[in-house]
Amino acid sequence: MPANATAPTWTLPQVSHVYRLPLFELIAQAHAVHLQHHPEGEVQLCHLLSVKTGGCPEDCAYCPQAARYHTGVEATPLLSHAEVLAAAERARAAGSTRFCMGAAWRHVKDGPEFDRVLEMVRDVAGLGLEVCCTLGMLGPQQAERLAAAGLTAYNHNLDTSPEFYGHIISTRTYDDRLRTIDNVRRAGISVCCGGILGLGESETDRISLLHTLANLHPPPESVPINALVPVAGTPLTDQPEPPAAIEAFEFIRAIATARVLMPRSKVRLSAGRLALSREAQALCFYAGANSIFVGDKLLTTPNPDQDHDRALLQLLGLKAEPPTPAARRHAAPAGAGGISSPAGKLAMHAAWQSEMDADRGRSRFRTLPPLAPAAADFCSNDYLGLTRHPAVREAVERALRDGLPLGSTGSRLVSGDHPAITALEAGFAAWRGTEAALFFSSGYAAGVGVLSTLLRRQDIVFSDAHNPASLIDGMRLSGAQRVIVPHNDVAAFREALRRHPALGDQRRFLVVESLYSMDGDWAPLAELAAACASAGVAMIVDEAHATGITGAAGAGCVAARPDIEDVVVATLHPCGKALGAAGALVAGSRLLRDYLINHSRSFVFSTAPPPVLAVQISAAIRVIEQEPELASELTAQARHLREQLTALGWAPGGDPDSPIVPLVLGSDAAALAAAAALTASGFAVRAIRPPTVPEGTARLRLTVHAGQHPDAARRLASLLARAPGFRPPAYARDEAGALRPAPALR
Ligand code: SAM
Ligand code: DTB
Ligand code: SF4
After folding, report:
1. CA 380, CA 371: separation in Å to the nearest integer?
2. 136 lines ligand 3 (CB under 6 A)
3. Could you tell me the pTM of the whole model?
């Protein structure tokens, strides 16, 4: 017999009566009902994962994932099977017994993506977890396929009352929703259906929603009650008078009423817990809520820290619902079929192999190429040739001869500072014109370390759409709300500032590169800084490709520019490009340096770079200061290569004096073929493919170098012109500088 089959049908006046009982009476009744039907003090922990985020065509006024609203949620492709399985394993290890996968789809379509979701369902179920999906509207056959794959439950919310629904969503009807729920039910999948409070609905609407839910036949086995998580950019939040947050007591009333009306259902205290006090959550549990979503993220919005949840449950004397016997079997220690048993390892290798086979099929499989031949280097970032400069080599050799230790022996906080490193930091700060600098072990460690430290979870960070991975990962790790700004678009940035004001103690940051590695164009730093100055936004600038080749004494775009410097809290200077070494310096105030030494985990927990690296970088900086002609020659080489390509009908990207010269070819295969042909002729050239660059813009990223033979650029261009099958790229820059298909060139 299905759960709730014997539940009474509730009339609207009855529901209204329950909902409006004096609060303590309502909670007492709900608690009593709860004890009759559920184990006392048990809460099911569930984990949510957005397997396909953003880009949804629907217009749900609360939802950050609707494509039509500018919420900063990026549309991303369906996650890989391995990513989902790994997340499910982690969820299970952390005590969740239910794993819910969400996709921002209007409806489920048969096809390869749905096939992949079915595989995910099958394998997550295989871990012994309850599996729930929320994928939008569902037809009868698709529901059956999900059931066959082992789906436990399907989440499809009514969201609000039938009367208020039209104020919130216009692209699908209440009846559409009921049809999906019916299809789920008929396929034998259990129904998870609830709503959101705080959309601006009235008390009568809340009563009507609960009335509708309780009268589904049978009522849903699972009833998520969400409080609106307001997200800037959604119409609900951006209107002149956004709805007031739902009052905690109203929320508790809704939970308690749901418990009384649907005695056997799991009542899930879902989105919005960050805005509920621990005391309010405690009352929800007492009133019959017996499930929460754990993990620091719901689908796209933040959720309480899992340790805090654990502490709260412990404080209240509640315990997590135990895993099913199947899950316990799966979680058995190594040697009994766990991940480190031979079978687990074999399965893991098979999974990696199949993922990489798929990459190969899409021309996405990468191998480490042999060292670029010295002959014609058009791919390295050794812009000034400092990896081979005699003065740098001499400095390194002398230091080693003088007994410089080869390793740093540990992290700087533990092993202490080597004078070569402190000298580099002082020298670098003087060159760059800041109070201080701090040496990180790599550019990636600096990007991740600085951003994850300076940005707080409650902050807003505006991020250029073409920022590199190190910055993206640092921003992600910080948990700050990320607003993606179209590449180098100052007007769009000003508009984003307007749309995302700082509330309360929120801080706002802008994160950009000064010279974009894959596009070869300079950021409009002065204009961006002016916008930041008037809005009280702090800037962080990654000078990876600008350090050593531009600005005062070659120290980058921000150096000696007080108009920009005034809003910049940190500049990042990875040393693997023009400086010809590795590691990275972060420049700024003394306070910044102290703060990073104390809080930046990638600094604190990394072994310090070997002192010889500091000697090498210090020597490289001296060369840059003493030989400014290297940077001038680089600019001349860049202009020369662009002229050669343009004369032959190509449309190289990037700014005229930038040493990075992208030739966008479109498809991965075209870029790979072009790179292979040039390599075969003695040119070191690399194809750059997604995800490093946006889909459909695979390219050759050509770089020029001081000291390069002037004839090399001409030979490269003419080879491109003559090579069979090559044609001028299908992309060119429009007046605004954006890459656009260029049919005239085809
Ligand atoms: N596209 C699918 C659908 O609508 O069925 C699945 C994903 S959708 C994000 C799942 C549910 O999350 C929505 O029905 C809504 O109840 C809830 N939700 C979405 N955004 C929310 C927000 N900002 N605050 C609270 N709940 C939200
Ligand atoms: C539900 O009712 N709440 C969960 C689950 N079902 C899928 C989703 C909450 C999403 C909150 C907004 C977000 O994180 O994007
Ligand atoms: Fe799309 Fe679901 Fe968000 Fe509505 S709630 S916009 S259907 S992802």
Report:
1. 10
2. yes
3. 0.54
